[in-house]
Amino acid sequence: MSTDEIARELFSSIHRQQKMLPKIKGLEQVSLGDMAVFGAIMKNLPEKDGKAVAMGTLHRYLRMSPPALSQSINRLEDKGLVERVFSKENRRMTYVAFTEEGKKIYHRERMRMDAIGKKIVERMGRKEAKELIRLTNRFHDVMEELILEQKESCKK
Question: How does pLDDT run across 70-81, given as a tens digit for each residue?
């Protein structure tokens, strides 16, 4: 198999995975992207009394553009799952906090995703699952390097 054929197969495989993820049953009220935002909020909660996280922190943690993050927060806010909290000390600081309903849904969906992940690991086997994680992380690192190289070459 040539390098070109392997490259095409690699992107085909990634595309198949991307098409599969939305078909996972169980995620009822939130998308996988929304769950990523939820997870970022949970991981960064201690920031403001353990109740809210700065938008800037979410932006850096998720590596999302500010407009994309705002759209995601707007969707979650429209569903009543999060709310924006404005700082009294600095009006420009915006925080995001879970609503009670948002906390319930996050924990329920997190449990569903964990159950699905566990089934995947059981069927693949721990060794292959760990190897997939290693390779996926390596792929991500290589892609980041290539993106940085492209940005640098565009500056010249």
Answer: 999 999 999 999
